[in-house]
Design brief:
Blueprint (H helix, E strand, L loop, with lengths): L13 E8 L5 H8 L3 H5 L14 E8 L2 E13 L2 E6 L5 E9 L4 E10 L2 H5 L1 H25 L2
Antiparallel strand pairs: 1-6, 2-3, 3-4, 4-5, 5-6
Length: 150
């Protein structure tokens, strides 16, 4: 669902998308970061030991405000351009998220999601803020990876 641009979100879901462009000479170095868990690690997440491959189920975890949030996921696609995963029961959001750099050097972090339970629906505005901030962080990580490859 999130591998390609989305014209409109399914009912009840929200699309969040952040992109940046890297120079052609920097694309391969950035792709190496994007198609692994490395950029998630650089954003402060605990990540699975195994590379993202279709069908891999794992746990992401991040501390926020002193609380450790655990996020179960299952990788739904992975290739040389990046990967995408769906959330699993226990994740604060229900949906899918992907991270991709295309042949033109455009990196995109995209999610289609909604709060997963009534509890998280109560916190929906905070979830959206955290999601936007996290996507913006991914963009900065990609920009830094591009700069360090020069």
């Amino acid at each position: 669902m999130t591998r390609h641009p989305i014209a409109s979100a399914p009912e009840g879901m929200r699309v969040s998308e952040h992109s940046t462009v890297v120079a052609p000479a920097e694309r391969d170095a950035v792709a190496a970061v994007v198609r692994s868990w490395e950029f998630k690690r650089r954003a402060g997440f605990e990540v699975p030991a195994d590379a993202p491959t279709p069908g891999l189920e794992g746990m992401l975890a991040k501390r926020l405000f002193g609380i450790r949030f655990v996020e179960p996921v299952r990788v739904v696609w992975a290739d040389e351009s990046g990967f995408g995963y769906e959330t699993r029961p226990g994740h604060p959001i229900y949906g899918e998220e992907s991270f991709r750099i295309d042949e033109g050097g455009v990196f995109t972090a995209r999610s289609v999601s909604r709060p997963s339970t009534w509890f998280w629906r109560l916190l929906a505005p905070a979830l959206r803020l955290v999601q936007r901030a996290t996507h913006a962080r991914y963009v900065r990580i990609v920009q830094a990876a591009a700069a360090s490859s020069r």
